[in-house]
Amino acid sequence: MSIEDKELIEKRFGPLWSGKTEIPFNGGIRTLRDVKRSLALEGSDTVEIDLQELTGDRCAFRFYDGDDRRVVVFVLDAGYGIVEEHRAHVAEWLGDMYHETGMMAYDPDAMADLLRKKIAGEP
Q1: Per-residue confidence at 2, pLDDT binned at 50, 70, 90?
Q2: Cα(49)–Cα(94) distance, rounded to whole angstroms?
Q3: What is the per-residue pLDDT across 4-22, written as a single tens digit (0 to 9) for each?
Q4: Which member of 4, 5, 63, 95 lies 3.0 to 4.6 Å from 88 by CB, making a disulfide possible if both were Cys?
Q5: Helix (H) or strand (E) segment spanning residue 98
Q6: Using CA atoms, how far apart are residues 85 and 48, in angstroms rounded to an integer?
Q7: CA angle 10-1-76, nearest 5°?
Q8: Is there a contact between 54 and 86 (Cβ–Cβ < 8 Å)?
Q9: Structural domain of residue 51, as residue ranges?
Q10: Which of 94, 61, 57, 97 is nearest to 77 (CA)?
Q11: If pLDDT is split at 50, 70 and 90, which confidence band does 43 have?
Q12: Using one digit for the tens of pLDDT, what is the confidence trace for 51-101?
């Protein structure tokens, strides 16, 4: 994993949190929670980021994986099959701030919140 992975994610899917919380997909409106449930990620250390409509009956689901400490993008087909997966370590976004987080690095909600604030330019 490298800075190129982060750049690919941002170039192809836009800045983190630039997507939507719900999208028309697979014959209905799907929310972040719906997609997380469909992928059996409920109860895991994942924090939803956003959804994006893609061409060809596909969508992208971005989330923070607390177990892996990576931002993940799953490109899904209409049956919720993963047709692409992209991962980049959260340190690619946080830089030196990541190494200062200490035990917070083990709290996925806290890390996702820190990442969101960094992206938004908040202190």
Answers
A1: low
A2: 16
A3: 899 999 999 999 999 999 9
A4: 5
A5: helix 96-99
A6: 15
A7: 55
A8: no
A9: 3-120
A10: 57
A11: confident
A12: 999 999 999 999 999 999 999 999 999 999 999 999 999 999 999 999 999
14: CB partners within 8 A, 6+ apart: 52
Question: What is the rounded (10 degree) CA torsion for 116, 118, 119, 123?
Answer: 100
Per-residue model confidence as pLDDT tens digits over 111-120: 999 999 999 9
Number of domains in the chain: 1
Tokens of 25: 């997909």
Rounded to two decimals, what is the model's pTM? 0.93
**Which among 3, 101, 14, 94 has a CA at the least distance from the CA of 52?**
14
Distance CA 64, CA 108 (A): 7
72 and 65 Cβ atoms separated by less than 8 Å:
yes
